[in-house]
Amino acid sequence: MRLKSGDRVRVLCGTDKGSEGQILKAYPAEGKVLVEGVHVVKRHTKARDTTTPGGIIDKSLPIDASNVAVVCSTCGPTRIAIDVDEFGKRFRVCRKCRGAL
């Protein structure tokens, strides 16, 4: 999985199709990412103690990493390629414009 926390992504399918957000957390073992403002559900919680109130809270759930595309600043949604410089350091680039992500 080539997605990292902080990447700007666009949702490709599902109920939130077309919405964009930033990756808050990546779960590479499960192949999922947590995107801000996407796949938000309501959870009914009970007050555990005086500091955590009960009620209905909004919670973001992870979505599959295959359902998002990284948004390049110059050419829009794209896939990611890996380039190697002359010192052997690997870095991620846009497949369309070859600009750094």
TrEMBL record:
Role: One of the proteins that surrounds the polypeptide exit tunnel on the outside of the subunit.
One Gene Ontology cellular component: ribosome
InterPro entries, per the entry: KOW, Rib_uL2_dom2, Ribosomal_uL24, Ribosomal_uL24_C, Ribosomal_uL24_CS, Ribosomal_uL24_KOW, Translation_prot_SH3-like_sf
Organism annotation: Ferrimicrobium acidiphilum
Source organism, top-level taxon: Bacteria
Pfam families noted in UniProt: KOW, ribosomal_L24
CDD domains xrefs: FYVE_like_SF, KOW_RPL26
Subunit structure: Part of the 50S ribosomal subunit.
Homology family: Belongs to the universal ribosomal protein uL24 family.
Keyword entries, A-Z: Ribonucleoprotein, Ribosomal protein, RNA-binding, rRNA-binding
Domain spans labelled KOW: 6-36
Ranges for domain Large ribosomal subunit protein uL24 C-terminal: 38-97
SUPFAM superfamilies for this protein: Translation proteins SH3-like domain
Protein name: Large ribosomal subunit protein uL24
Gene name linked to the record: rplX
